[in-house]
Amino acid sequence: MDLHLRPIRRQDISALTGLLSQLGYPTTETELDERLDYWLDDPSSWLVGAEDDGDLIGVAALHVLPLLEKTGKLARLLALVVDERYRGRGVGRTLVTAVEDRARSAGCLALELNSSRHRTKTHEFYQQLGYEDACARKARFFKNLTAS
């Protein structure tokens, strides 16, 4: 495997659509093209892709938020997916390391992420990378703003 990291670009829409489906978020290329409008132009957001021999095999999505309660910023890993054919080969670890490096260079004090409770293997992966499940000490609230 010849792993190379690079920014995501519009030409990746087809491969990205497949990766998001593997993550459990099926979408259309048209919808994803619309989402890239705000991702690619947002200086606080970063999409990094992992490719092998020219094929996009993974993606990580990072967003940086300024903090008000202390000096610094918070990074959020909003999505991480590696093509199922490449899992267990270090691609996810490489993407997370790149996201952490980017977050540090942006002045972030911490990186947080959400992961559905049914993804137990994913939780083990993050714990191996030093992430802590903070649900026991923090509540997470969610409100759908599109439902009537």
Structure commentary:
The protein is an alpha+beta fold and 148 residues long. It has a single domain, classed as Aminopeptidase (3-Layer(aba) Sandwich). 32% of the residues lie in helices and 28% in strands. The chain has four helices and five strands, in the order βααβββαβα. It has a five-stranded mixed sheet with strand order 1-2-3-4-5. β4, α3 and β5 form a beta-alpha-beta unit. The model has no long low-confidence stretch (mean pLDDT 92).
What's this entry about, in short?
32% of the residues lie in helices and 28% in strands. The protein has 148 residues and is α+β, with helices and mostly antiparallel strands.
Question: In terms of topology, how is this protein built?
Answer:
Blueprint: E1 3-7, H1 13-23, H2 29-40, E2 45-52, E3 55-66, E4 73-82, H3 91-105, E5 108-113, H4 120-128
Parallel strand pairs: 4-5
Antiparallel strand pairs: 1-2, 2-3, 3-4
Into how many domains do the coordinates divide?
1
Order of helices and strands: EHHEEEHEH
Spatial strand order of the main sheet: 1-2-3-4-5
Number of strands: 5
CATH superfamily: Gcn5-related N-acetyltransferase (GNAT)
